UniProtKB/TrEMBL annotation:
CDD domains cross-referenced by the UniProt entry: DsbDgamma
Membrane-spanning intervals of the chain: 340-365, 386-406, 426-444, 465-489, 495-519, 539-556, 562-580, 592-611
Keywords: Membrane, Transmembrane, Transmembrane helix
Keyword Isomerase: no
InterPro entries referenced in this protein's UniProt entry, alphabetically: DsbD_gamma, DsbDN, Thioredoxin-like_sf, Thioredoxin_domain
PROSITE patterns in UniProt: THIOREDOXIN_2 (PS51352)
Protein name (record): Thioredoxin family protein
Keyword Transmembrane helix: yes
Domain Thioredoxin: 608-733
Superkingdom of source: Bacteria
Organism: Sphingopyxis soli
Length: 733
């Protein structure tokens, strides 16, 4: 959100000067801009002074209104618990002489994490003081596979997302049926962020009684999912030895076992230096791990080998000779798949090239081409401006990609276009789109930075850079052919390999303008300067105006409350009025802006009565039920085909597919005839469950379309451009 506001502000002040000069190829009556003073020089100075004063006031007013809108959009809520704990049982009626499972679900708040049984350098696991009824015993909790996290040079073994600890509850055989066996305890754990740690405590309890041991199907499914996240025990012991300042481990693992992102967690302390690099190699059916030693522990040791994607194996180590190091094992961090990298980079470049056809990007590209036309074929100026435009597009794409990778590394469940999931970012873009539209329509002009050849060239480069930045930022809601898979590859590549893919998107976006700047044959095909340029500029206001309307609709959908929508509308209304007032000063008509004010006050007055429609509309959208993992599991159990699609209100490709294919009458009739179950995942305001589901299928953006055939183990990923025929064929219609 901060990046959106900063970029929008810089673009607003740095790029319109170039657009304001689009009609420079046509005669311009200076008296329309400066009025008719007694002398031209004194009149020009007078108006420039008024412009400076107004622009200072305008900037301050807009910043104040935007800050006010940010405060109004910030939800007022009580501080949630750092990690919420809840105890649940697989069966509430345990059979005497039998065992049931209990789970302690731990839900960290945003930015917080919990710890594995050995928390590493700076943490500790959970402990419980049980108050168990007579005849009831509780086993130690079993932990799911953690993730390594290095903060300030210290290694932490953590869970940054919701997780569950599992234990077994055994009831004595002589307990009479119907006996109350309610289990309570006092749980203690540590909750941390990257800056602070807080010890936490809670009373946990679950109602149990002696009975028939029945388990509800939904509860069994949930516990099975939690069990799947637990590490599996190896049936053979490993070996470990210390040699000087090095410690080596041998883990018995068949050669065919895949290692995606291995890491060895030691439950036994004082053996290894946790932050030290771990080297993995394979010697036949042994995995050899080498790292730096720390501490003086000896004898047997317990550990957990993380295989990747939440899978792991518990290992019991006995002291003994470790086989020699073998063939190095490549990990995601040390040896990325270069074929995947080059394929993704090529897809990002081509996908970025296609984005130039989108309605929010095309007018920007067209106007920059017009600036080349205005230059009269100056090859040097064209090249400078094209390079500046490319630099702006590439740098913005890199910054957005870097922010995405940083947020994901910090534990946030986000994907591409994450900034459009926040109302404040959408509001900033809406104000920018309105300002661009009004500028294109000629409602106001920004002053030129000209004043000599050197400054003119500087203005061209600056205008090109910020326009490229705007084009890249405006293109983020769009996803087209090749782009979804290319951005999805950044999920599995290290940061140094993922960032060039984001840069490739910006480079592809800039390719047409770069070609015009460096290929004289293309530049010579541009039409000659003339009065048509002013008309074309006004026509370009149409797609930008439609973009502003779409952003306004998206903001309305996201807020969805009559009381909250008022302040954003006030900010937008004041923006339009201030810009219109500025334009009236330039034209010498100080009263024209009153017409804007009257109309916009009427719009704001309606906000309180229509805001709730957006929320109601959100619950009625889509041609299917709401997606969730449980809903998907139930749908697949029905034995019918299942169609799952993930969408967002700000995704142009998604809405085009929904209108042109999914919601077509013929497609819905075919789905109904074949009993196709449709599930819709709405990612408009972000959803960690949907983000993880996208990642599981190699994507971090929408749209994503999945088709589950009856009995199929895995879904088929459908193309990002759907047709009615494709969907009816899938349904067998």
């Amino acid at each position: 959100m901060i990046f959106a506001a900063v970029v929008s502000g810089f673009i607003f002040t740095g790029s319109f000067s170039d657009w304001g000069d689009v009609s420079a190829g046509c005669p311009l009556d200076e008296s329309r801009l400066y009025g008719k003073p007694g002398t031209q020089d004194s009149g020009r100075r007078s108006v420039e002074l008024r412009k400076d004063v107004f622009m200072t006031g305008l900037g301050r007013a807009l910043l104040a209104l935007l800050a006010l809108a940010m405060l109004s959009l910030a939800p007022a809520r009580a501080e949630p618990p750092h990690i919420a704990a809840k105890l649940v049982a697989e069966s509430a009626t345990v059979s005497p002489g039998a065992t049931t499972a209990i789970a302690l679900t731990m839900t960290p708040g945003k930015g917080w994490h919990g710890y594995w049984t050995n928390g590493g350098d700076a943490g500790f696991g959970l402990s419980v003081e049980w108050n168990a009824p007579e005849g009831v015993s509780v086993s130690p909790f079993r932990y799911p596979v953690p993730e390594p996290l290095i903060l300030f040079g210290m290694m932490n073994h953590v869970y940054e997302h919701p997780y569950a600890l599992l234990a077994d509850v055994t009831v004595a055989r002589d307990i009479a049926p119907g006996t109350d066996l309610t289990l309570t305890g006092i749980a203690n754990w540590l909750a941390c962020t990257d800056k602070v740690c807080v010890p936490e405590k809670a009373v946990i309890s679950v109602a149990l009684k002696a009975g028939d041991g029945q388990i509800a199907p939904a509860t069994r499914t949930q516990f099975d999912a939690w069990r799947a996240r637990l590490p599996q025990p190896l049936d053979r012991a490993g070996k470990w030895e210390r040699k000087g300042d090095r410690v080596r481990f041998a883990i018995p693992l068949p050669a065919g076992t895949a290692l995606e992102a291995p890491h060895l967690f030691l439950e036994t302390q004082n053996i290894v230096d946790y932050p030290a690099v771990q080297g993995f190699s394979r010697n036949g059916d042994w995995i050899i791990v080498e790292t730096r030693a720390k501490g003086d522990a000896a004898g047997r040791a317990e550990g957990l080998l993380k295989l990747g994607d939440g899978r792991g194996l518990t290992v019991h180590f006995e002291p003994g000779a470790v086989p020699a190091k073998g063939e190095p094992v490549a990990t995601a961090a040390s040896a990325p798949d270069m074929r995947l990298f080059w394929t993704a980079l090529g897809g990002a470049i081509l996908g970025g090239l296609i984005l130039n056809l989108m309605p929010c990007v095309f007018p920007i590209l067209s106007l920059k081409a017009l600036s080349l036309t205005r230059s009269g074929g100056d090859a040097r100026a064209a090249k400078v401006e094209a390079l500046a435009y490319t630099g702006g597009a590439v740098l913005t794409a890199l910054l957005l990609g870097g922010a995405l990778l940083a947020l994901r590394a910090a534990g946030e469940e986000v994907g591409w276009a994450f900034q459009l999931q926040h109302p404040v970012s959408v509001l900033a873009l809406l104000i920018l789109a309105i300002a661009i539209t009004m500028n294109l329509l000629g409602s106001y002009e920004l002053p030129s930075f000209g004043g000599g050849q050197a400054l003119t060239e500087k203005s061209g480069a600056a205008g090109g850079f910020w326009t490229g930045a705007l084009a890249a930022f405006a293109a983020t809601p769009c996803s087209g052919p090749l782009l979804g898979a290319a951005l999805g590859a950044t999920l599995v590549l290290p940061a140094w390999a993922a960032l060039p893919i984001f840069g490739g998107l910006g480079f592809g976006l800039a390719l047409p303008f770069l070609a015009i700047g460096f290929v004289p044959a293309l530049r010579n095909r541009l039409p000659k300067p003339g009065p048509w340029m002013a008309k074309f500029r006004k026509w370009m206001a149409l797609p930008m105006g439609l973009t502003a309307l779409a952003l306004g609709w998206l903001l309305w959908r996201q807020i969805g409350s009559g009381s909250l929508i008022v302040w954003p509308l006030v900010v937008v209304a004041m923006t339009v009025v201030l810009l219109a007032h500025y334009g009236s000063i330039q034209r010498g008509d100080r009263r024209a802006w009153l017409l804007y004010a009257a109309g916009l006050l009427f719009v704001v007055s309606l906000a309180g009565t229509v805001g709730d429609v957006a929320q109601a509309e959100r619950h009625t959208d889509g041609a299917g039920a709401t997606f969730s993992p449980a809903a998907l599991a139930n749908a697949r159990k029905s034995g019918k085909p299942v169609f799952v699609y993930f969408t967002a209100d700000w995704c142009l490709s998604c809405k085009a597919n929904e209108a042109g294919a999914i919601n077509r009458e013929a497609v819905q009739a075919a789905f109904a005839a074949k009993g196709v179950v449709t599930l819709v995942g709405d990612w408009t305001t972000g959803d960690p469950v949907i983000t993880r589901t996208l990642a599981e299928h190699g994507r971090n953006s929408v749209p994503l379309y999945l088709w589950y055939a009856p009995g199929a183990a895995e879904p088929e990923i459908l193309p990002q451009i759907l047709t009615p025929g494709l969907l009816t064929d899938k349904a067998g219609g």
